[in-house]
Amino acid sequence: MRWFNIQKSEVPLVVSLAVLHFLVIASFTLARIARDGLFLGELPVQMLPYVYVMVAIWTGFAVWAFGRLSARRASHITLARGLIWTSASLLVFSFWFAQAPRIAAVIFYLWSGAYGLILVSQFWILTSDRVNSRQAKRLFGLIGAAGIMGGLFGGGTATMIGDLIATHWILVMAAALHVVAAWVAMKSGVRADETAPVLKSARADTGLGLRSALSEPYVRLLAMLFLVAGITSAVLDYEFKYFLQQKFVEGGAITRVLGLFYGAQNVVALIAQLGLAGFILSRVGPRSASMLLPGGIILGAAVTVMAPLLILFRVVLSTRLYDATLRVSLARTSWEFLYFPLPDQIRRPAKRLIEVAVSRSADAGAGLLVLGLNAVAEGTIRQISFLVLILASAWMMLEFVVSRAYRAQTSRPLRRAIALARTREGSLPLTEQREDWIQFLESEDESRILLALEALGSSDFETVRSRRKELLSHRSPRVRAKALSLLISRGDSVDDLEWETLVDRGPMDGEATAEISLAESAADRVAVAAAAARKYGSDIPRSRLPELLEDPEKDVRVAAFRSASILGDREFVPTFVKKLGSPVDRKDARQALTRYGNRIVGTLGDYLLDPEVSIGGRIGITRVLAVIGTQEAALSLFRAGHLSIDRLIVNHVLEALNQIRLKDPSVNLPMEDVRARLDQEIIRYLTRIVQVRSVRALEHECVRGLLVRVLQERMEQSLERIFRRLALVYPTEETLLAHRGYLGSNARLRANALEYLDSILEPTHRRRLIPVLEARSPDDQVRLASDALDRGSPSSYGTIMELLESRETWLNTVALYTVGSLKLDLHLDQVYGAMRSKDLLVRDTAGWALRQLDAA
Amino acid sequence: MAKVIQTMSIMERAVQLMATDFLRNTPTDEVALIASKTTEVQFEPGEILNRDADYADSFILVVDGLIEHRRENSIVREARKGMATGLMALMGIDEPDDHIIEVREPTHGIVLSRRDFLDAISEHTEFAIEIIRSLATLILRQARRIDELEKERRETP
Predict the structure, then answer these.
(1) On the CB side of A429, how many CA atoms lie within 13 Å of its CA?
(2) What pLDDT, in 10s, does the model give residues A128-160?
């Protein structure tokens, strides 16, 4: 099965689906041959156009009715029941043909026109329920090939036994195949949740589903695509048959050519499906593969329009053969991918509608177009070719539009799943908490009031504001301070506040406020801090801001932070940056710095690069810049996003850049650098994969465990950064969702994530990343990573050397520890070099390693 | 009396800490940062750790030796080589008065004080998240154990 790229665990499923497809197509081919034979044997061919119209109307009704009957059933049950019911109907028709062949011929034409396509469509619904979009790329080629073989088998059988038995007996054979197919359907990869008679989770797959499907712009677009594709093919078929009639007068010659044509079509389709479909789908993706069909028809039609008469027939024949071959092989398989991003309740009715009703409508549409062409012009071969050229061009344009819509659509399952997870997380009922907090405000206990103010300040500030007067005149200075601080922080004008209630000594103006000494209560100091932001009055409060910024009471500091940032004095910026490192003040310091806005983003960028600033401070800066969110803020962040910066800082820088791009996708980054860093990150990720494998060979258990853990950790961190960097190049939100989907435990969601990435990534990124991300085993992943890096697997000692020379100090440290533990004196130079490191941990470990080497 | 010693490098301490349940999922470089805040202490038998002002609120990883948790004269837990004690103390949760944590054998420990722990939590969000995860896992494990015991009790005639 390696040749077919099938995993061992997938074999039973693939075999059962392939057998099922074979049976469904074989029986449908038998029934179709019997249908044509019986109809043409009993009725004049002139009746066929009327029957076509009736079929188009009837299939619309049949799709709706089938949707209602199969509502909320698992797809395998729906298919099995459909097969059994149609099997019974075939037996009835077989009997009916013997009694009243003319009526039976018309009714059976209608019946088979609908049920055949519905069963084929239902088979593909079942198949897409069983495999995800990533598996489909590998497996659909083989499953599709089984269908083509089913067609060959049906056609061959009918030819062989056609002269031996009456035609209506072929229906009995088809009925028998239906029964076998129903049994296979019930055995094909049924999941535990599908064994219930009715699926509780699924929404009604009925008329409502059909309406919901049609309300989706994506489904309408697909319907349009298939309609135009169907019309093009039907007109091309008409052109081919028209040419046949023109070229060959004798009926026998036409039959011979048609026989050769259909024979060649099946053989070529089988080769294309078995040999090319899987390869092309994996290499270029389903959307590009899908464009090969209209592309070839455009070329064929263009040549037909201009070609000399001598080779005209060959060109028309080749174009028709190309269309007929690809339509049942590569294109058929590629089109199946278009339905994967749709939710089940829409996918099922949409698929039936498009594959049955739309394709029948396409035949009718093609007939009308040809009639119209004949009416307004002569309907010559070149005119028909020109019509095909126009139709195929429209089809190609639609393919491009659909490709764009497909990319957007593939992110929707991720969005839905993540939204669902968020809904499940839930939250505490805020209203109940609010009542409790309001009751706390009435309490005699100062600490309870302070707690309530803290909570209501962030969740229900209007309640605080409505009690402003009583809170500002509260007997507790701490309550007054907190209330005042909250009101100020929410932008309530200081001048409007009831100053007289703040202190016991009576009314205050600016000067009086300024004179309050630090020995006064916290409420008084909050008032001073708040007064500093006033545009008029005394300068004394402003001069006291530096000391108030360091006040032991948080409320005073908060008020001072606010005033300082409103004044916009840059002299306070270093203080705020320092405060970002303090767990107690970091939130207010962030708010203060954010208030400065774009004026200080350059300065903040410098601090971000400064190793002397604490990690907490630098992380805080990334958050401030993310909130400021301007073009300049993004560029300041980007300066610190290169690989040699501390990984924690880089992670936060990338997170901040993603936030900015989410809010404003028009923010530009130097894309050449973004791509260069992304490429470096991918190389780093692939290198870690290879390194993890190499260190597993070490015998020293403790060292091996440490190295594997550290490198795996680095690998995961690198992958996260890859996604964050991808989100700077490709659609931000969708790429981040793909990251979540990829890391989750839901296999289908993971496949969706990969499918989305596959559809958006540029070839260079896709080639390097996608195979490694969907590797089937760790061995496979290492092999693919080595291939992508174009290097062999290093030895464990080679990896230790690489780690010693790494730009990451933590990896240097771990390598030094390894050198000491394993007493690897070959690396003595590196150990001596590390003794001069600025990093304490590196120096300490190098010293330890030297002692170990000396001891040895 | 407990004595501060220095026999291990920061990295050696980090490797010891990485192996504990408590820090098993914390990024290794962050464990190393925490290790740099720890001290090595040699405890002598008979020392009651949860009544010692210096170590009552500390997390202690046993490098070698034995520390015993007793309640009403029965041993409820033994911390040997590679095991830790004082997680609750680190979180600021006091043990009941009748709970005794006593050094039974000469013990070499790596000690992380509550203050350094809180500093690490406030400075390193990833570390804080992993601590919450570890505690949640601990609670889950205990809850499952209680369920099992209750089930056993119900099934016992």
Answers:
(1) 4
(2) 888 877 777 778 878 888 888 888 888 788 777
Shortest Cα distance from A835 to chain B (angstroms)? 14
B9:A845 CB<8 A? yes
Handedness of CA A223, A227, A230, A232 (dihedral sign): negative
Q: Indicate the helix (H) or strand (E) that contains B4.
A: strand B3-5
Domain boundaries of chain B, sorted by first residue: 3-155
Q: Of B9, B12, B123, which has the smallest distance from its Cβ to A615's Cβ?
A: B123
The β-bridge relationship of strands B59-71 and B84-85 is: antiparallel
A589 token code pair: 């310091």
Smallest CA–CA distance from A716 into chain B, residue: B27
Indicate if A239 and A387 belong to the same structural domain: yes
Taking CA–CA distances from B7, the nearest residue in chain A reads A848
Q: Is the pTM of this model over 0.90?
A: no
Answer yes or no: do B28 and A810 touch at CB < 8 A.
Answer: yes
CA distance A427 to chain B (A): 19
Sign of CA dihedral A418, A193, A407, A762: positive
The rounded distance, in Å, linking the Cα atoms of B11 and A842 is: 9
Structural domain harbouring A211 = 204-410
Smallest Cβ distance to B11: which of A614, A713, A817?
A: A817
Specify the CATH superfamily of domain B3-155.
Jelly Rolls (2.60.120.10)
For chains A and B, what is the number of CB pairs under 8 angstroms?
48
Calpha distance A181→A28 (Å, rounded): 12
Question: Under DSSP, is residue B54 helix (H, G, I), strand (E, B) or coil?
Answer: coil
pLDDT in tens, A766-825: 888 988 998 878 888 899 999 888 887 788 889 999 999 988 899 999 999 999 999 888
- Which of A609, A620, A541, A611 has its CA nearest to residue A578? A620
Nearest Cβ partner for A583 among B11, B32, B122: B122
Q: Which residues contact A133 (CB under 8 A, 6 or more apart)?
A: A337, A340, A410, A751, A752, A754, A755
Closest residue of chain B to A821, computed from CA coordinates: B12
Token reading at A856: 């040895």
As for the ipTM of the complex, it is 0.89
Q: Which of B32, B124, B125 sits opposite A813 (nearest CB)?
A: B32
Q: Provide, rounded to the nearest whole percent, the portion of chain A with pLDDT above 90.
A: 24
Contact A614 B123 (CB under 8 A): yes
Q: How many angstroms separate the CA atoms of A408 and A221, rounded?
A: 13
Instruction: Name which of A581, A616, A713 is nearest B28 (Cβ-Cβ).
Output: A713
Nearest chain B residue to A702 by CA distance is: B15
Q: What's the number of domains chain A is made of? A: 6
Residue from B56, B37, B47 nearest B3 by CA? B47
For residues A321 and A277, membership in a common domain is answered with yes
The CATH code of the domain that includes A855 is 1.25.10.10
**A837 contacts in B (CB within 8 Å)?**
none
- CB of A357 closer than 8 Å to CB of A121: no
Indicate the pLDDT class of residue A423, thresholds 50, 70 and 90. low
